Each structure stands twice: as C-alpha cells, then as structure tokens.
# Entry
Amino acid sequence: MLSQRKIIMEEFKNNFSNLKVDQLGFVYKDVEKQAKIFETLFNVPKFAILPETKDIVKYRGKDGEVNTKLAFSRQFGLQIELTQLITGDCIYKEFLDQGREGLHHIGLFVENIEAYIEYFEKQGYEMIYYGEIDRRVYAYFDTEETLGMFLEVQETRKRRKNPS
# Structure
C-alpha cells in the first residue's frame, strides 16, 4: 500500500513540474464592453460570450449560488476569461466590492484536481472558492499576499463511457 501511495505521489510531482499557466482570468462589471476593448486594443480574437450561468459553489466554507456571465477568447497561447458577476456572494463580489476590476486570477488546467487541492492546502493556501459547471471542476486559493492575485486550478472531467 505504501509503495502504491509513493508511486501516485511521484506521478503527481512529475505532473506538477510540467504545469504552466493556461488561463488569465479577469473580473469586470461589464464583460461585453471589456471584450470589445480587448479585441480592439490587443487584437484578441472575438470573444465567445456565454449566457448567464447559475453555479452551486462553496465560498469561504459556505454553500451558495452564484450567477455570472462569462466570455472566452485565446491570445498569447492562453485562454482569456472575462467574468461578470450577476448575483451571489463569491470571490468576484469581494474583488468588485474592493473597487477593483481587472486581472483576478491565473488558472492552471490539471488532471486529478483533488491532489492539487491537497498540495496547495498543505502549503498553507486556503481553498476559498470551489464549484462545478457541467464536467468542469474548479478551486481557487487565496494567494493574493504571495502572488497579488488568486490561483485557480481546474479540471475537465472525462466523459464516462457507457458500458457495452
């Protein structure tokens, strides 16, 4: 059993050493306006603006519901995510209530999100926000003091194959 755990941790270390920033996440009061600015100023390809979503989340240990409007594009080999809060208590509201708009988090796309959650918590970073949208699971860590922004890890879970 111990050797199996050691193998899993070794695989995790290998995966961790290959991580890269996959996403820049911004929070704004109006994503449609900001999308146009990004498209014009930085020649970012046209953003896909999604309909409002309703997510069941855990924010600072409490269950809640959050409504957001998201916009996505790609530039510089990165996913650019723009988030507009519609309703709910969450880290986006906290950010906006501080009078801030702009770069909010960097995102890492991972496999086995639970291992990363365990790792960052052992490093002393509190997981302050967690949610799921369809097959995508995400967790935010409070890294503002050390990074000046939040860190998000997210995993897109594979579809399960139907047994034949």
Summary: The domain at 25-156 is CATH 3.10.180.10 (2,3-Dihydroxybiphenyl 1,2-Dioxygenase; domain 1).
